């Protein structure tokens, strides 16, 4: 059994890690930390897990964590993970960081997140379908939620060198803002509404840019605008991709089916994707349609932001890092409707 | 023109007073106060009113308010209104208090709200349909939102001495919790859910009790349990009323039509009431059905908690206090759907 | 492996049976029927199950079903199940009927559902926690969704002979109305609203009455009023129970903990139950609070109407009928939030 | 008083016309037609209007309509208005058509809507802010809901010849699909979801194209993808506009303020627009932000699809056609939140 620890387990991504790991056949939950809740049962905050685990929140030091855990998930704020990583990586403990700390080049991180980076170590970007080499690593940087949906939508066309301009118009459920109440999550503000934010300069754009330019070194015109919709979970991405040459929907079908062959968590439904069909699951559903008028292709992707966009993908990485089938513990359909 | 001031204008009830008063034919908005926002335009918080008024928030003393205003609406927290009232009532300025401070006997207020009351003055309870005498007063205590819906649902039967046991199971939109984000208003907590609270001891029960026992001195078995539903506005009350004798639905129809004759804001629709049909309006829609099995009557009422349950009723009181038609400025249908 | 068939698999309860059975360790999905969709992939309607099964809808006769299946779930309309049951029960095939056909006495069924009953056979009522004897049967009548939540909320007090009057004010998610669009499920009608219906005469009242009077032969004053809330799933029941003697919240705690001891799907959380904490799961969460004023007790229960209120409970019955642990295939926490 | 008739008054746009006209100071509601509901009170379907009008639905012939009405609003399906218009236009009756029949060139209409057009008459496109000449006409083609939001967002930049590529990613409330339940409006399908449709070929694209190319004859690369969001009302448009030269946010501010000077229903809020701030009102709120990276400008617009996107704009047209102030009967703020 893999002994797993979750640092910062009281938030939504921590809760999802717990929900998925309590039923993972190869994992034993060893510890869950929270500074402010140390000593309290984990189910005092994650009430839906009552009956599934009787852990109490702890607040141990890194040495203790390292000794008890084979794998540690960091579900901590940006800027905090970099303090844990050097202390946890000892050659036997593996670390999966759900924060942004190791997703970008150090200098780019410092510029975009406005803080110094204390650990210039490099990590593989754990977007599993594009980075199988993560399986060989002890440290994986788990991708951001928006970049997961956007990058998977465009990757096949980027890899084929076909994209001229990419516009990602993304719509996220509000759980992405976290477990604490905010102006955006205030029901009277969000219900019956849609709230765009960081119209031209969201931090996640850098991850999308990094991944897509890795696939196509000439691609530069990448644009990203996120919105919050009245939904708890889910990220729906509408990718308006202007291509260098006209493509038919059949062309797209061939390209996407080929690119995502044998990837269990990518589905290419015949209709449009639906947040309902992926909610609570680790799938990324993708569909596409060519616009014959203007060399535009509309690609749609749907994920659950807390699963494929965070905790599920982290466990998918864990499975691979430990030589397991990547679907273990994750092969759950959405509870639709 | 009546010169009106709103003390505590930055919240939801303040916003509704402003929305309704900007189009009131006999009212001139003279001032809107907010301690923390003094100097800023009122539309900086109430953005939907852009184009309708160019007031700035002020933070004046009571003398200044009294001199400039013919009527003052107190949209302040419980316990705060009692500090304004003695200073504002000078024989010419009228005051409508939307807080709880003057709704109950002083001793009962102190017990339920857990604070001393500094002003033992009595005020009429401004539930307009039951208290026409409010028109003669300089100070009116505007009712709570739940008591408005519950009391209007049961009053005709209470006045007829027919109720044995009353159970009010109320469902409110979340705007009743105010403009500031809370655990309850956090979208992931409320959406796709329903949140009961203060199951047996909500403060508003005292108002319902006071009004119904005024109508029927023998009625004591009055029970009230509120819930928050995923809706911004509205209070829907399901009154399960056990009666002393069997009643038919036709009996109910006769009793309610007679009791609410010529009351413009009470409607008795043939189907069940709907929050959609009253949203944004000052109506209270009521329907009823007799349960032949157990001497039970189910009475349903629907109001907009911010209008008939707060600011609209306050303006209805103002109209009567100034000798105007009670519908002035309030004769607006809901924007359904 | 138990070979399972689902008759009427294209609706919501059919979909939930499929979702839960694809991962059940002891079950092999043998067939799924639909008259109108025969020949089409099951995933053409249940898109969220893409990747989990490659069944096609069939439309076979009863003999064929009986031969292929060890257990058959009837997810068909009321009045239809009674045509299947006599043909399927052959001494080796077990049948779990999710319709109302075998829940009541034949004469009562005929009166309430307004149709003749062609099969006077008796069946055990599969409310698992109250009917362990269902494990011995070949035919089980799976309970209605409202009765599951209401009966479990009141059963401990009824069994103790303590209830004088019971008022069940229930709030259901709209998936209970089925997969086909209706006036009630029309988003502009339901969103930001709450829709009561069958205020005094819902068919499910008979099931609640039957079960509670079975526990307490003297209890007759049982009242039930359902509402649809803006939620896809879930039934939240507020039970206002007037008791024959005063009870404290501690008394209630003792009674409920004793009654539900060792029942894995009943949880008694310290706070109020939440639809979020049970969504997608087979749990029934119950809490309670004594109202010292009027011998009233408020008991709250939360279930997922499609799981504990339908398909999950059906599988729980199946597990017991086949001598398995009742939690097999059902031990899944809600994906909260 | 202007005598007004509404043909096809039982749907949502009919209901909005009624809601706004019952309080219009210069209008008398003369008739409301519905074939299927003739003889029934208008309030039997529009229950929120109870107390405001006592019209019954009629089903008269065109001559009768023409004689009784000074203005007729056609709230009928596409393809039906063309049968009314020739019979209603007699030199004294004015007609405002809310259907698509007269918005496009006859041949384009026939191609896009797949039906023959029986009346080749031309009509002014009643997008008031861009077509003041509508005031002189007897027949006005009221714009589609999406084109109103999209065109107003881009018009100032198109008129300046600055747009190279326009991508309109629009999000509409579901009331745009009408009063009858559909798959899209089925609550379990739409809640917690977002549903894109007609990704590359929505009929409304032709209106946007026609208007923007009228302002800039060289602009051709215009793209439009609509989505339905979990909201009853509102259209939120995210316009990704690639410009021929770099623009700053200050440049945009100057261009938009100049273009929309003295237009009462266009507001340019300092923050992002909100559906909440326009709900129930006739405003179009617009904001903008320059993306320095890629010569992209993000322009956001928010309207109420049933008001500025349909019935409110129709009344705005009516006001101008009768020489009245365009705000008459429409100067209502949103009931936010």
From TrEMBL, chains A, B, C, D:
Record GO terms (molecular function) = N-acetyl-gamma-glutamyl-phosphate reductase activity
Give the E.C. number(s). Answer: 1.2.1.38
Primary role: Catalyzes the NADPH-dependent reduction of N-acetyl-5-glutamyl phosphate to yield N-acetyl-L-glutamate 5-semialdehyde.
SMART domains this protein is in? Semialdhyde_dh
Q: Which family does it belong to?
A: Belongs to the NAGSA dehydrogenase family. Type 1 subfamily.
According to its UniProt record, in which pathway does this protein act?
Amino-acid biosynthesis; L-arginine biosynthesis; N(2)-acetyl-L-ornithine from L-glutamate: step 3/4
- Chief site of localization: cytoplasm
Ranges for domain Semialdehyde dehydrogenase NAD-binding:
3-138
What keywords tag this UniProt record? Amino-acid biosynthesis, Arginine biosynthesis, Cytoplasm, NADP, Oxidoreductase
InterPro entries named in the record: AGPR, AGPR_AS, AGPR_dimerisation_dom, AGPR_type-1, NAD(P)-bd_dom_sf, Semialdehyde_DH_NAD-bd
Q: What is the lineage of its organism?
A: Archaea, Methanobacteriati, Methanobacteriota, Stenosarchaea group, Methanomicrobia
Active site (catalytic residues): 145
- Tell me the NCBIfam families matching this sequence: argC (TIGR01850)
One Pfam family of this chain: Semialdhyde_dh
Per its UniProt record, what PROSITE patterns does this chain match? ARGC (PS01224)
Question: Where, per UniProt, does this protein localize?
Answer: Cytoplasm
Gene3D superfamilies registered for this protein in UniProt: Dihydrodipicolinate Reductase, domain 2 (3.30.360.10), NAD(P)-binding Rossmann-like Domain (3.40.50.720)
The gene behind this protein is argC
- UniProt catalytic activity: N-acetyl-L-glutamate 5-semialdehyde + phosphate + NADP(+) = N-acetyl-L-glutamyl 5-phosphate + NADPH + H(+)
Q: Which CDD domains match?
A: AGPR_1_C, AGPR_1_N
Q: What is this protein called?
A: N-acetyl-gamma-glutamyl-phosphate reductase
Which SUPFAM superfamilies does this entry report, sorted A to Z?
A: Glyceraldehyde-3-phosphate dehydrogenase-like, C-terminal domain, NAD(P)-binding Rossmann-fold domains
């Amino acid at each position: 059994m893999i002994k797993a620890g979750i640092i910062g387990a009281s938030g939504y991504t921590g809760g999802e890690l717990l929900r998925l790991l309590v039923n993972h056949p190869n994992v034993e939950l060893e510890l869950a930390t929270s500074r402010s809740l140390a000593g309290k049962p984990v189910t005092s905050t994650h009430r839906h897990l009552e009956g599934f685990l009787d852990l109490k929140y702890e607040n141990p030091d890194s040495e203790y964590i390292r000794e008890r855990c084979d794998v540690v998930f960091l579900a901590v704020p940006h800027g905090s993970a970099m303090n844990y990583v050097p202390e946890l990586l000892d050659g036997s403990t593996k670390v999966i960081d759900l924060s942004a700390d190791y997703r970008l080049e150090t200098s780019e991180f410092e510029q975009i997140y406005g803080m110094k980076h204390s650990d210039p170590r490099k990590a593989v970007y754990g977007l599993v379908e594009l980075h199988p080499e993560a399986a060989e690593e002890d440290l994986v940087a788990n991708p951001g939620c928006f970049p997961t949906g956007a990058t998977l939508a465009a990757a096949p066309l980027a890899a084929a060198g076909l994209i001229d301009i990419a516009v990602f118009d993304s719509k996220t459920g509000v759980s992405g803002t976290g477990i604490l109440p905010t102006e955006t999550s205030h029901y009277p503000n969000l219900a019956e509404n849609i709230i765009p934010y960081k119209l031209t300069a969201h931090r996640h754009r850098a991850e999308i840019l990094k991944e897509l330019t890795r696939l196509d070194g000439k691609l530069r015109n990448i644009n990203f605008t996120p919105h919050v919709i009245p939904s708890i979970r889910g990220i729906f991405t509408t990718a308006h991709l202007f291509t260098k040459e006209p493509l038919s929907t059949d062309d797209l079908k061939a390209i996407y089916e080929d690119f995502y062959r044998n990837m269990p968590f990518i589905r290419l439904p015949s209709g449009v994707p639906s947040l309902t069909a992926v909610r609570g699951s680790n799938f990324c559903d993708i569909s596409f349609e060519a616009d014959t008028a203007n060399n535009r292709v509309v690609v749609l992707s749907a994920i659950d932001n807390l699963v494929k966009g965070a905790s599920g993908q982290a466990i998918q990485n864990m499975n691979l890092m430990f030589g397991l089938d990547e679907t273990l513990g994750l092969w759950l359909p959405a509870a639709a409707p």
